[in-house]
Amino acid sequence: MLLLTHVDDILLAYNKSSDLTITPDIQKMLDEIQVVRKAFIAKFAHRFDFLDNGPVHHYLGMEIIRDRTAGTLGLCQAAYLQRILKRFDQHLCTRSSSHTPSATVELAPEDTDTFYGPKETNLLKNLREVIGALIYACTATRPDLSYAVSALASYVSNPAKKHYKAAKRILSYIRNSLNFGIQYTRVTNGSDPYRLQGYSDADYASDTRTRRSRSGTLILFGGGPIIWGSSLQSVIALSSTESEYNAAIHLGQEIAYVHQIFEAMNIPVPKPTPLLCDNESTIRIIKDRFKMRNTRHVQVKFLKMEEWIKDKFIEMVKVPSKDNLADWFTKGTLTYEQFCHNRSGVMHPLNSSALVEPPAKSSSNVQSK
Hints:
This protein has 369 residues and is of the alpha+beta class. The chain has helices spanning 24-47, 78-87, 121-125, 127-140, 146-153, 161-175, 240-264, 280-287, 304-310, 336-346, and strands at residues 2-6, 9-13, 58-59, 62-67, 72-76, 180-185, 196-203, 214-221, 224-232, 273-277, 314-318, 348-349. The protein has three domains: 2-54, no CATH class; 78-178, no CATH class; 193-333, Nucleotidyltransferase, domain 5, CATH 3.30.420. The chain is built from ten helices and twelve strands. The strands form three sheets. The protein has a five-stranded antiparallel sheet. Strand 1 (2-6) and strand 2 form a beta hairpin. The protein is globular, with a radius of gyration of 24 Å. Residues 358-369 have low confidence and may be disordered.
């Protein structure tokens, strides 16, 4: 049994008989879990006032959508995002639904790009609030917003007109994709056990101000993402190969962290974990480092990757660039078709209760005689 807390919001998680194949040993374990659960609630209620809301449906602004028959669990923030749209007067914006959330122009400001018109004042003045609200969605249920929000967040201290347009583009995209979220699928009897799968990618020297490369990382588990991110690298890479190597080592650290959590939760995960990368040179360096003379400057800490592979903790796997699901975390130049291809491998449209229209009221005014 797991106890998850955030301030005064508490979740209890434990196995139910409907999720397992019952054997005498498992039944004994389930009975013990119920005893511990009831004892915890009794002691907790003795010291604190609390409300038992039963099976969880909403938690920290996230809607939890379960289908026990299909064995799926989805997380969606449609209601939270709707409040953001209304707060910044973008809930009625009209725009084609076939566009990505990323800006199509270079976001670095120009000297002539500082004029703000009257229509831009409200959103531009509150740009920090917009980005702050969207960052929570990015880290919780909306990996599709990660690159666009991360790139725009670099300019909130001194925004220009183009940044207003970029923020509006993100909100317009959200309005047309409110039903998207992340979904996990239960492993059925006889199928493969739960497996981790990592994707890494990098866009070399993509930041025009600092010439730092941007890393994209993604870890899938149970058919859905559990860790993802889009961020500028902390060091300046001297080649595209080095930038890809930096992204791969960062992903390796994230995989090690996930393994530690699963071990503490007694969740067995097969090893090695595949780390999918689309850069052939990076894979060759890891396998044959001493023959790559032009990368001898790479810091010693990066040799940790070789140790992980030797210990069969991680396995480097070559993946075509079009199938690298971390690609959309590194660049905003993807076509809408490429963007949707990445999104389909990470996210799903969900039936959120926040998007269900209330029944229309009858307009009949017929009076009986």
